[in-house]
Amino acid sequence: MNFSILQSDLWPIIQSVSRSCGIRSTLPVLGNILIEAKEDKLKLSATNLEIGVVKTINAEIGEEGDITVPVRTISEITSNLAGSKINFESQNDQLKISTDQFMATINGIPASEFPSIPLSGKEEVIIDPEILKKAIPEIAFAAAVDEGRPILTGILTQIQDKKLQLVSTDGYRLAHKLIPVDQTYQFKALIPRRTFEEVIRLLTEQEADNLTISTSEDGNQMIFRFGNTQLSSRLIEGRFPVWEKIIPSDIKVRIIFERIELLKGVKLASVFARSEANVVKLQNQDNKLILTSETKELGSQQNQIEVQSNEESLTVAFNSKFLIDILSAFSASQATLELSSPLSAAVIKPMGEEGLEYIIMPVNLG
Question: How far, CA to CA in Å, does 224 sit from each of 15, 59, 131, 160, 259?
Fold first, then answer.
């Protein structure tokens, strides 16, 4: 195999795929990038067995072939050859890299040892990439990080009745987004949060008119295709919680608030809540929302913001970190806080953003 390519063309591709390498894996080939030259295309692939990313780019191909090389080595070399046209040649599991002023040889691993990455699927769904770029940051934070409950580390993704539904929860808070889409095909899958976050990063790095989503032939992988990029991800097995039952129906108190004002108030209250399980109390009274917090070591605080509320007063306590996460996730200037009792789940709905809602469980002070 031999090919030539400009450093400015190759380096961004290496950066993108390298995030999906399994550098810490006990399987050495997962710390490598697979390089394939065929016809006039160069294809770079990386996988950690959970996520696989493949990118293609035009290059001057002299001889077709393939090899895998350590991602760190080729990444560091390529980044320091700025402005150069780089020549590559593989022979006997080694890759020679050269420019007019530089030459190096990297020991590789045969491409035959690299795991296959599913690239074709069935029942394709095509959506606007901008939909995901806006929706995922609004809801992904609510998914669990702890791998002890793998089901909660995923985002429930469902298309039904021409609506895309995204749900994430860690058991303490829940984010739900419902988006109209022009799709008749129906599917339901539990996609890892990390997968969606990587898809958003890749979409941010390049423009794409369409995003195609499909399941692999065996049904165990979700495949995303856009521009010159393909990403394959394992799906999470198991039953997602019946989240609809968490949403309260008997709302007694509805509070309209300014997002930034409440966010500032909660951040102030959190200063005095860090050693007390981050507990902040909220009480609505006379169109004011009073936020209190205290800790034995530091003292206490009280601050209030102007709101619009019905006459019934209610005091409820929340984990301030969870409130801050929610209030930082959406961009609407106003939102509603709906309460039914001090121990029932509360609902936060951004105003002007149809289909977006957050559920947060209160703290029991008993």
Answer: 19, 24, 14, 19, 34
